[in-house]
Amino acid sequence: MARTRIKICGVRDEEAALAAVDSGADAIGFMFVRSSVRYIDPAEAAELMTMLPPMVASVGVFMNTPIDSFLDIEEQCPTTHTQLHGEESEELIASCAPIIKAIRFSPATIADDLERLNENDNVEAILIDGPSPGAGVPFQWTDLQPHLENLAKPVFLAGGLTPENVGEAVRTLRPYGVDVSSGVERDRGVKDPALIEAFCEAVRRADMAGD
Description:
The chain is α/β, with parallel strands linked by helices. It has one domain (5-209): Aldolase class I (TIM Barrel), CATH 3.20.20. Helices cover 34% and strands 21% of the residues. Strands 1-2-3-4-5-6-7-8 form an eight-stranded parallel barrel, surrounded by five helices. The protein is globular, with a radius of gyration of 16 Å.
């Protein structure tokens, strides 16, 4: 059974970054969307990146960011991966490639969205979020299950994941990775090291349980 990768997103301080590392997370995400409560200045994110061990990846999260602004941020904080979370054009996706492309789950559009991204050479992985990203509300994972069978791209599952439900999500979908932000916070935008540890442990237990 393959190991499920873990991304802790919306990291804004040293405590959260080190908690993610100590708990065995594979990646931490920096939110470069100014309207988000989890926004971090690129210079501060770059400082946190220096604390990460070699095998822990960093992910810069952008949403409808103009290419010039994207390049400025990338120069200040050259993350391992780039995640686009908006309605970016194909031209912008190509300019930022390779990227992790986030989409919202909707029964009406999920099949077309996955087919389009699966065929896009500029997309290295697909992140499937809930209908209302950032709201901390999960969707019905069994509705997504049949759409994953023929995908070639790695899939990250997000949207309302918590230490209490991530094990069920992993056992149901067996995604390449899981992405959590609000589900490991003690207050809005403030990560809780104990919840990060519990989340990572729940993923490991689900992996060990197999089908």
